[in-house]
Amino acid sequence: MTHLVVLSLEAWDEVWRRNQHLVAGLLRADPDLRVLFVEPAADPVYAAVSARALPRPGAGLRPGPDLVGVGPGRLWLFQPTKWLPRRIDARVDARLARAVIRAAGVVGTRDPLLWVNDPAGAATLDATGWRALYDITDDWLAAPRTPAEHARLVADEGALLAQAAEVVVCSPGLAARKGADRTVRIIPNAVDLAAYQRDSVRPADLPAGPVVLYVGTVHTDRMDLDLLAATARALAGTASVVCVGPAPLAPTDATAVTAAGVRLLGPRPAETIPAYLRHADVLVVPHAVTPFTDSLDPIKRYEYQAAGRPVVATPVAGFADSGMQRLTVAARADFPAAVAAALAATLEVTQALPPVDKSVPTWAHRVEQMQEVLAAVAASPVARERPAVAIAHDYLTQRGGAERVVLAMHAAFPDAPIYTTLFDPEGTFPEFGAARIVASPLNRVGLLRRNHRLALPFLAWATGQLRPDADIVLVSSSGWAHGVRSPGRRIVYCHAPARWLYQTDAYLGSSGRFAPTRLALALLRPGLMRWDRRAARSADRYLTNSRVVRDRVRAAYGIDATVLPAPHTLEADGDREAVAALADWADRPFSLVVSRLLPYKNVGILVTAFTGMPSRRLVIVGDGPGRAALAGTLPGNVRLLSGLSDAQLRWVYSHAHQLLAPSLEDYGLTPLEAAAFGVPTLALEAGGYLDTVAPGVSGLFFPEPTPAAVMAAVEEGERHPWSAEAIRRHAEQFSQEAFAAALRDQVRQRA
């Protein structure tokens, strides 16, 4: 069965234009065809601000109307909602693309052909890689737009011209403009001739007496409103000037034309349009002559010709060169008089309906031409293969070990987009700037981007909005990202089951029993735990970074996971930048701890220990909720640094003589970073450090997180005969290359 997704510039039930006629004809011609017809997005904010329409959301997904010769369930209509303008939401087209993808999935559309009229459809092509037809009916690059909007149109159309399998235009003028760098096909517009041959009665809303009629959208891109008003004033008392079709005008413009005597009837059902045209006395085309209108093939040319009524048009493309019978082409200054003359000549002859002009081209022939084009599109390679791999992560708002693992995943699969609930470029590693980041709707709230803990009640929902379209999704998760939805398989790399669910006391530290965060977690915990376990069990494969996490995954989810140690990503041979705050310590030995400042990290224990060792120095590199409280307790031999670049961190590692790791970690990443610089680690004998510290080679263990144990370990570490070369060799076992090779092997097994 053939599936087709049409991104239309017109709503189905408004003025029937090219898309509606062709789609209806294609559906009748091919009983296996199914169509999702995507209408322009509703824009309630714009409607409210401009006062051009009632602000309302889009109509959403719904079955299409009954069509003669077309069975039910073969035509679906979808109108999304654009909640924010592009100048505020730069990703609005990408969001609309995701809405289209979801709608296509709901109606069972699989591997469809994409038919694009609007240049903004480039976002959907980019998001899907569907084989595409770009059907150009207007030269939007020639329309008056703001510089920013024009730049967007240029970029979007450039992408479509480069990637679409076929490009169709409706006029020779468009062919000349768009066919410079690629082959284009010309399929002009036409008319449903049979509709004009059926008997029709005069529409009840046409005013009595002579009528001068315009059918089409009353829009400033095409319409010369001043000329329309001038024509109405010139015919006052002689005939009514009537417009049938949508009129998305500013209130001042609408008032001006109606005050001149123009009647704006609004859109009418497509099947009634021939009756309006046939029962009018003169048909008019008061279009502005501009670069935008100079390449059109107006459908009204064929409709007007079929109606058999006299036509008066300004010298615009499609009319000035048409050779139509009963056509008067008049310059702007002569237009009202030409309309009056055509009206007088018509009224002198007869009021009877004229014969239908049967020489006009019909849509049946155009449908045959479009079938050939669509067959060529279907036989073409896809515009872009669906990405083999996508990456998902909880939130990219901080600089931690989990975020470095995501960077390592991206290094293994550099074309993979990264999906996340929150993305704060200022808060996380700058390397993410080179990746394609797809954030959830929650990312629009700046407060949550800066403090992800406040978003906790909403993260399950936000994760559900992330729907990577990939064969394999690599999920980096500490409790959220494993809930992403995807048509492909999911490999979860688990840093730890959610601490706030399964290690609540360790996560919250010494916060009071009635602390707001603790109370919130108590309320949310049952529901979040059900969601978390359901999300975990939906994965195709679980990997963990350490043995201790493997055991926790088994306890929390009943899943047997495979241990794949995370790599160290801070390479020792990168750039280094001296840290000014340590200038006076550069030539003097100091111990180092690199850690998020959270209760379970035990950094405060180190401060206490070094308070008792005033001759030794400690540098703390980290940030987090506990920073303010910690900063107020530091003795003179302890310094706290935050916000270091990777170059600065390399400098700090290279000048440290030992790393301290006192926390109960799920994975021991910092000992590997230190080892890459030949620096030994003194670590708590527990958790993830058991997998990354080689006793006596790359470090030593101390038994418990107490100041006394730390003090004893520092002294022992200073006596131990370390080999910097042996320490570096240990780090090489955990390289990015080894990690990437293991990930690729996991992907190959499940592809």
Question: What's the layout of helices and strands?
Answer:
Blueprint: E1 3-7, H1 18-29, E2 34-38, H2 44-50, E3 60-63, E4 75-79, H3 92-106, E5 113-116, H4 122-128, E6 132-136, H5 147-163, E7 166-169, H6 172-178, E8 185-186, H7 193-197, E9 211-215, H8 225-234, E10 240-244, H9 251-259, E11 262-266, H10 273-279, E12 282-285, H11 299-307, E13 311-313, E14 327-329, H12 335-349, H13 363-379, E15 389-393, H14 401-412, E16 418-420, E17 437-439, H15 446-450, H16 459-464, E18 472-477, E19 489-494, H17 499-502, H18 504-508, H19 516-537, E20 541-544, H20 547-557, E21 562-563, E22 591-594, H21 603-611, E23 618-621, H22 627-631, E24 638-641, H23 646-655, E25 658-661, H24 670-676, E26 681-684, H25 689-692, E27 699-702, H26 707-719, H27 724-732, H28 736-750
Parallel strand pairs: 1-2, 1-5, 2-4, 5-6, 6-7, 7-8, 9-10, 9-12, 10-11, 12-13, 13-14, 15-16, 15-18, 16-17, 18-19, 19-20, 20-21, 22-23, 22-25, 23-24, 25-26, 26-27
Antiparallel strand pairs: 3-4
Helix pairs in contact: 1-13, 3-4, 8-9, 8-12, 14-28, 21-26, 24-27
Would you mind describing this structure in some detail?
Helices cover 36% and strands 15% of the residues. With 751 residues, it is of the alpha/beta class. The chain folds into four domains: 3-186, 3-Layer(aba) Sandwich (Rossmann fold), CATH 3.40.50.2000; 193-360, Glycogen Phosphorylase B (Rossmann fold, 3-Layer(aba) Sandwich), CATH 3.40.50; 391-563, 3-Layer(aba) Sandwich (Rossmann fold), CATH 3.40.50; 580-734, Glycogen Phosphorylase B (Rossmann fold, 3-Layer(aba) Sandwich). The strands form four sheets. Strands 3-4-2-1-5-6-7-8 form an eight-stranded mixed beta sheet, with helices on both faces. The model has no long low-confidence stretch (mean pLDDT 88).
